[in-house]
């Protein structure tokens, strides 16, 4: 690291502190030549893949758009903020784990659907209806049937389409 005062090439770290969220490190440095002290901030720089839209356009990944998609699907659903943040982080992590420089937006949609499926079935169907461009009730029915077949109900969530409540085991009271 060059000294910002005299441009000398040798500086020494005299103290390091990790930020509260663990994402940055603040380093206190001293210049070997002039003795001046200064601080630097070290952060992780990860390059996420570019997003290829369905019309062929390419754009940089935007975590705000991802969060907006989750928020729209989960509107008026009782899902904790921490769970939503964890789902967003999971999608970003999945993107980081791809070795590709470009990722189709459809794949991100699949990542989001996977996370929504774990969080809330209604939000999942909402997102899927837009993502897969449902055109009629039959498309909804097909997706609901697939969901009922593949996924156990989320604890505390009402059953889909008026299913009967599970019956208590014999000898047990509700």
Give helix % range: 25-40%
* Widest sheet, order of strands: 1-2-3
Structural class: alpha+beta
The poorly predicted ranges are 170-174
* Termini separation: 68 Å
- Which sheet architecture does the biggest sheet show? 3 strands, antiparallel
Q: If you average the pLDDT, what whole number results?
A: 83
Task: Walk me through the structure.
- By secondary structure, this protein is an alpha+beta fold.
- 39% of the residues lie in helices and 18% in strands.
- The chain contains five helices and six strands.
- It has a three-stranded antiparallel β-sheet, with no helix packed on it. Strands 5-4-6 form a three-stranded mixed β-sheet.
- A hairpin with a 5-residue loop joins strand 4 and strand 5 (58-59).
- Helix 1 packs across helix 2, helix 1 (63-73) crosses helix 4 (121-131) and helix 3 (105-119) runs antiparallel to helix 4.
- The chain is elongated, with a radius of gyration of 25 Å.
- Residues 170-174 have low confidence and may be disordered.
Question: What's the helix and strand layout?
Answer:
Blueprint (H helix, E strand, L loop, with lengths): L10 E8 L5 E8 L5 E7 L6 E3 L5 E2 L3 H11 L7 H17 L4 E3 H15 L1 H11 L5 H14 L24
Parallel strand pairs: 4-6
Antiparallel strand pairs: 1-2, 2-3, 4-5
Helix pairs in contact: 1-2, 1-4, 2-3, 3-4, 4-5
From the structure above, extract its key features.
single chain, 174 residues, alpha+beta, three-stranded antiparallel β-sheet, 5 helices, 6 strands, 18% strand, elongated, disordered C terminus
């Amino acid at each position: 690291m060059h000294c910002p005062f005299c441009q000398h090439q040798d500086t020494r770290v005299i103290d390091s502190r990790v930020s509260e969220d663990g994402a940055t490190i603040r380093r206190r440095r001293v210049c070997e030549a002039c003795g001046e002290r200064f601080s630097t901030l070290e952060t992780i720089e990860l390059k996420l893949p570019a997003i290829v839209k369905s019309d062929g356009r390419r754009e940089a990944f935007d975590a705000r758009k991802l969060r907006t998609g989750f928020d729209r699907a989960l509107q008026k659903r009782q899902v904790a903020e921490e769970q939503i943040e964890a789902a967003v982080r999971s999608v970003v992590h999945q993107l980081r784990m791809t070795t590709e420089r470009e990722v189709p937006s459809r794949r991100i949609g699949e990542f989001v659907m996977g996370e929504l499926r774990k969080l809330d079935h209604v939000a999942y169907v909402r997102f899927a209806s837009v993502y897969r461009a449902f055109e009629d009730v039959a498309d909804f029915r097909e997706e609901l049937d697939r969901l009922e077949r593949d996924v156990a109900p989320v604890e505390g969530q009402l059953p889909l389409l008026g299913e009967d409540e599970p019956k208590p085991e014999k000898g047990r009271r509700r």
